Amino acid sequence: MTQPVPETRTPGQVTLVGAGPGDPGLLTLAGRDALRQAEVLVYDRLVSAEILDHAPVSALRINVGKTSGYHPIPQDEINAILFEHASAGHRVCRLKGGDPFVFGRGAEELDYLRSRGIACRVIPGVSSTTAVPAMAGIPLTDRRHAASFAVITGHKAGPEALDSDWAAIAGGADTLVFVMGLTNLPEIAAGLVRHGRPASTPVAIIQDGTLPSQRVIIGTLASIQGDAERAGLQPPALIVVGTVVQLRHTPPPEPFGDA
Fold this sequence. Notes:
5-stranded parallel sheet
């Protein structure tokens, strides 16, 4: 009697896709194509509905989004979700805001999956660190003002102070871009002034960058905390420090709209 052949499952693939900074028009063509092929879509909170709509209606959608100070699905569980569905032979699209490797946890997810035999690929995304200032009319470099820029996280993991080398940051580049830093704005401004940045240094804060709801306020390191409080700014917001802020054009470039 012929014995039945045991069923085998071919592992699927996980594609890490950068969704861009928010405006659906800034999703790359490669990212759009990966979404269209997805059987399982695992996505972050800040990804717009217009971008999610590129995935097939039949795709399983799993929201693993986080907000500041609130992480309902821990990273270990996200890793396990990706592994579970890829192991079942599915094409998994892991959709992350901005670029997967710029202040995301794409590298951690990639290492976890590859160490367990899951095929992975990465599709870069337009990073909010460069796109948000650009869409607000602020160049990060300009030969008259800035030959370098640095991107720094303004987020801290716990109640302790930011673990930052303020002396190195303050003098490390002409333009400084802080992500996830609105909550810690007083500490950021004070740290920069304490280590040599003039209190008169221009600062821009951009809320909801690249979106129709975008708001921009301009101040200095001395004034920006009060400016932000009066404006009632809320995360997500990006902070730009440097004389390039003076070059902001009004009105700024228009959003692109749907991809």
